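Record 1 of the preview.
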Amino acid sequence: DLKVIMMTAYATVETAVETLTRGALEYIVKPFEPDAVVALVNGLYQKNKPLDMTRISLDIATVILTCGTDFYDPSTGKNTYGHGVYPDVVTGQEFERLISGTGPTGGQLLRPSNAGPRRELPGFNCVGSRTLQNDAPYCSSICCMHALKEAVLTREKSQHAIETVIYYMDMRCFGKSFEAYKAKAQEDHQVILKRARPHSVRWDEALGKLRIYVADMFTDKTDELFDMVVLSVGVRPVKNMAHLCDMGDIPLNAYGFPAMDFPSRTWTGGFCRGQFFGPYGHP
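->
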C-alpha cells in the first residue's frame, strides 16, 4: 500500500517503465524545478491519501526542530559586488548549477555573459556573514569549505587551466580533516588563498572583464581583473522560521534563529564531539 514517487539524476526509458510498472505513482528526472515537484507531490498525496485520515494527538517528551536555512541574497542592500547586475557574478549555489553535468552548459566551464571560456576565477568568502552591515555578525561555518571545494572542482574539471583565487578574512576549516583538505587544495591543485577584503566589483568595458577592488594590507595592489566572480554567501533563517517557532512557542535569538537559552523541552542544532551545539557552533 506504500505510495512511491521516484526522483533520479540518471535514468533510461527502461528504468522508468519498470519503476512505473512496479507501482510508482510518478517518475521524475533531473533537472526539475523544486516548486513544481512540491506541487506534484501534494497533488498526488491529495489524490491518493486514505479516506479515513483524521487528526491525532500525541503526548511526547522531546521535539527536535531541524529547521534548515536560507542563503543570503547578495543582490539586496548595497550590492557592491554587482550580483544580478553583472551576469558573471554568481553565488556559490549558482556556480554549482553552472558546473553540474545536468546544468545549462552541460558542465562546461563557460562564462554566463558570453559563453566564453574562463581563465581566472576568484571566490569571495564571508558574503553576508561576519558583517554588522547585514545584521549577521556570526560565522555561517560552511562558506570556507564550500569555496575550497568549488575551487578544487574547477581546477580538476579544467585540467588546472583555470586559475582559482579565494579572498578571505580567516580560513575557518575546523571540521575533521578540513585543514588537510585545505592543504591539499593548495599543494595539489594550486588554489591561491589571499587574505584580503574585496569591497566592490565593476565591469571593465574595454577589457571585457570584471575589475575587483580589494583592501589588501599586505601589498599595494588595489585591483585585479577576472573573468568571473563566485560569492560564498552566508546562511539566514528560513522565511517561515518565525511562524514555525511561534507555533511551538519557541523564542528566537537576535538573528532570527531558534534561541538556545530557554527550558530544554525543545532543542535545535546537533551533537559534535560529545557536546551539544546550537546553530553555527554556539553552545
